[in-house]
């Protein structure tokens, strides 16, 4: 078997030419197209990644906004609840103050009404006592009543400290009766008081029908109340205090 080197060489040349033609006319355009396609693909991937990142950022913004809205809503609800509680507390306090003010006013009103009732009762009791005293006095002999009050007046003067009795001895004394005293009555008063004082008193006799009955002694530095008027005033005070 012999090898035709000329034929083999021609085939080799043909192959080289074909390879050159293929690389020139096919492989380079295809490689360029593939490269362009890869570049386009990379650009698409880059754009897709950007859109994905933008979408994620937008979703994060939406989530943040949603969280912010929820937080603001919670804050508003908390503020509204706090304001409502403050309003309720203020209303309760004001209500308590109003009730306390009403109770205090009611107590003042009741106390004032009770005071007026006591005064009215005391005045009524005093008026009744005056009426009864007047009726009793009308049934008693005048001399007996005057003597009884004179004895009480002497007892009151006797019970005074010695220095007060000594002062009365030299003082200008008014002896006040509910009715004018007769000369005999005045003499009895002078004698009775002179017996308990250290010296003869200087007496003047006055009349005050408001005493109802009694004899009172009035000096510059003291007074001895000895009448039914004084007794009734003490009785009225006791009635008011007892109520």
TrEMBL record:
Q: Please explain the role this protein plays, according to its UniProt record.
A: Component of the F(0) channel, it forms part of the peripheral stalk, linking F(1) to F(0). The b'-subunit is a diverged and duplicated form of b found in plants and photosynthetic bacteria.
Q: Does the keyword Manganese apply?
A: no
User: Which residue windows are coiled coil?
Assistant: 70-123
| Transmembrane feature ranges | 6-27
Alphabetically list the UniProt keywords.
ATP synthesis, Cell membrane, CF(0), Coiled coil, Hydrogen ion transport, Ion transport, Membrane, Transmembrane, Transmembrane helix, Transport
Q: Could you give the subunit structure recorded for this chain?
A: F-type ATPases have 2 components, F(1) - the catalytic core - and F(0) - the membrane proton channel. F(1) has five subunits: alpha(3), beta(3), gamma(1), delta(1), epsilon(1). F(0) has three main subunits: a(1), b(2) and c(10-14). The alpha and beta chains form an alternating ring which encloses part of the gamma chain. F(1) is attached to F(0) by a central stalk formed by the gamma and epsilon chains, while a peripheral stalk is formed by the delta and b chains.
Family of the protein in this entry: Belongs to the ATPase B chain family.
Tell me if Coiled coil is a UniProt keyword of this record: yes
Query: A cellular component term (GO) from this record?
Result: plasma membrane
The name on file for this protein is ATP synthase subunit b
């Amino acid at each position: 078997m012999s090898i035709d080197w000329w034929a083999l060489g021609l085939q080799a040349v043909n192959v080289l030419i074909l390879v050159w033609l293929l690389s020139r006319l096919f492989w380079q355009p295809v490689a360029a197209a593939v490269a362009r396609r890869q570049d386009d693909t990379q650009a698409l991937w880059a754009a897709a990644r950007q859109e994905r990142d933008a979408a994620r950022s937008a979703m994060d913004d939406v989530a943040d906004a949603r969280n912010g809205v929820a937080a603001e809503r919670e804050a508003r609800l908390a503020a509204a609840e706090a304001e409502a509680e403050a309003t309720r507390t203020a209303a309760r306090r004001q209500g308590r103050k109003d009730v306390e003010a009403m109770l205090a006013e009611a107590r003042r009103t009741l106390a004032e009404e009770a005071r007026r009732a006591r005064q009215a009762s005391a005045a009524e009791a005093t008026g009744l006592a005056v009426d009864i005293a007047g009726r009793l006095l009308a049934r008693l002999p005048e001399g007996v009543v005057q003597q009884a009050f004179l004895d009480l007046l002497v007892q009151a003067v006797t019970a005074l400290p010695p220095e007060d009795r000594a002062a009365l001895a030299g003082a200008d004394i008014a002896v006040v009766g509910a009715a004018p005293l007769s000369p005999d009555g005045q003499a009895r008063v002078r004698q009775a008081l002179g017996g308990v004082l250290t010296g003869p008193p200087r007496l003047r006799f006055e009349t005050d029908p408001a005493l109802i009955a009694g004899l009172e002694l009035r000096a510059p530095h003291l007074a001895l109340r000895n009448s039914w008027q004084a007794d009734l005033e003490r009785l009225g005070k006791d009635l008011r205090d007892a109520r």
